[in-house]
Amino acid sequence: MPRTEAPPATPTRMSRRRTSASVVLRSVLEHGPVARSTISRLTGLSPASVTDYCARFSELGLIRESAVPRRSNGVGRPHVPVDLDDSRFVVGGVHVAVPYTTVALLDLRGRVLASRELKHEHTAPEPLLARAAEALGDLLDAAPGCRPLGVGVAVGGWVDRDSGTVVEHPLLGWHEVPVREVLGARTGLPVHVDGHARALVNAERLFGRARGSRSVLHLFVGNVVDAAFATNDEVHHGPRSQAGTIAHLPVPGGSEPCECGRTGCLQAELSERTLCRRARRAGVIEGVNPMHVVAAAAAGDPEAVRLLVERAGAVGRAARLLLDVLNPETVVVTEIGVMHRQDCLAALREGVGSERATSMMPTGFPDSVLAVAGGAVALDVLYRDPLTLSHLSGINSETPNVDRASA
Which string of DSSP letters, residue by residue, matches 208-229? Predict the structure, then answer.
């Protein structure tokens, strides 16, 4: 009997295949070492499908069999669990903040293996991105056993993920900057770009405190103030990825002038620049580093404590407005006081209100949040579509795909 050819792949079948591959690899990430039969039970996929995907991931070097087989109830044929292979591949992470750029290497579990901070001498995009590419190449040179899958870039402001473009970042002076194109040309690697709040909501879902939550709101309060919302594993982007722009939400009673011409906008009131200016006025610090305010508070300076607690409470009141609209199951806040002080976390929760206080939590990456933000952009792409990404990144090649000459 002649062999029947498989039907051609349709968009629907390809979408199902991507989804199935994603849930299998995510299950290994979350539960490994884990038996294939358990993955089948967790995902609802057939044992044969799980076995096929695991075989492909093993071939690509994304997973490996655990060294010690396990027996079910101590009898029968032993199960050989599979686990993520975090020894071979890395992703590059680039986070562009206002005062400096963070460049890092992360493993497949989202752990930071190496990082550097590059203080900005100026913020012109071409030289800034060239310097980031050179630093990333240096980190890769220092880790010869690691092979890069790609580079994730996280930036504040308005970032169009689909085109890899920073559409507008007023504090950097960037307008329509083709980050994917520029950095891709200098590294020779696939480059993925997103806003840092969306990057961090993905990091929290994959590796952090929001793992398993059905809906997550992430609120980022730094020099830039923005938000991201995810439900059922999908982050809302909106047209040209403009969702989450909350910088100009009005703060009742706010007094800080904003560049938009109004007074009391959320970012003008809560930014780290404003915090540092108020701290200088109160004699707490002399410079512009917000961590010096945290250090002063830790040393017992009552003015530093007051500034941080008041800011955290204001963040909570702002979050309450978003909670009323979005009603997320979990809220993760990246803000320096909340990350480092229990009194600030308490003020945040008080600002939100007792009925929602338990849903509020600080970021799960207090010591590496910016490095994780950059790497999470690339890791999210991997876990959403692992088979396609492995093909695009040259995963089967023998050497890392980094063009140092162009860096």
Answer: STTTT-SEEEEEEESSSEEEEE
Contacts of 226 (CB under 8 A, 6+ apart): 156, 157, 195, 196, 197, 220, 244, 245, 246, 247
| 8-state DSSP, 205 | H
Which pTM value belongs to this model?
A: 0.89
State how far the Cα of 18 lies from the Cα of 402, in Å rounded to an integer: 27
- Distance from the Cα of residue 249 to its chain's centroid: 24
Q: Report residue 229 as tokens.
A: 């919302």
Residues recorded for the chain: 407
User: Could you tell me the CA-to-CA distances from 263 to 10, 136, 158, 279 in Å, in that order?
Assistant: 53, 40, 21, 20
Q: State yes or no: cis peptide before 33, omega within 30 of 0.
A: yes
Hey, what are 146's tokens?
């690691």
Q: Vertex 53, ends 49 and 59: CA angle to 5°? A: 145
Sequential pLDDT tens for the chain (407 residues): 444 454 555 667 778 888 999 999 999 999 999 999 999 999 999 999 999 999 999 999 999 998 665 555 555 455 789 999 999 999 999 999 999 999 999 999 999 999 999 999 999 999 999 999 999 999 999 998 899 999 999 999 999 999 999 999 999 999 999 999 999 999 999 999 999 999 999 999 999 999 989 999 999 999 999 999 999 888 888 887 777 889 998 887 888 999 889 999 999 999 999 999 999 999 999 999 999 999 999 999 999 999 999 999 999 999 998 998 899 999 999 999 999 999 999 999 999 999 899 999 999 999 999 999 999 999 999 999 998 755 544 444 443 344 433 33
User: Which tokens in the block code for residue 380?
Assistant: 């999210």
Distance of alpha carbon 305 from alpha carbon 74, whole angstroms = 57
- Give percent helix, percent strand, percent coil of the chain, each to the nearest 5: 45, 25, 35
Write out the DSSP string of 99-159. SEEEEEEE-TTS-EEEEEEEE-S---HHHHHHHHHHHHHHHHHT-TT-EEEEEEEEESSEE
Provide the 8-state DSSP code for 331.
E
Residues facing 228 on adjacent strands: 218
Would you give the distance in Å from CA 327 to the centre of its chain?
22
Phi-psi group of 238: left, alpha or beta (phi > 0 → left; psi -120 to 50 → alpha; rest → beta): left
Residue 253 structure tokens: 């009673």
Where do the DSSP E strands lie in 178-310?
191-195, 215-221, 225-231, 234-235
Residue whose pair of structure tokens reads 């550097």 in the numeric block = 116
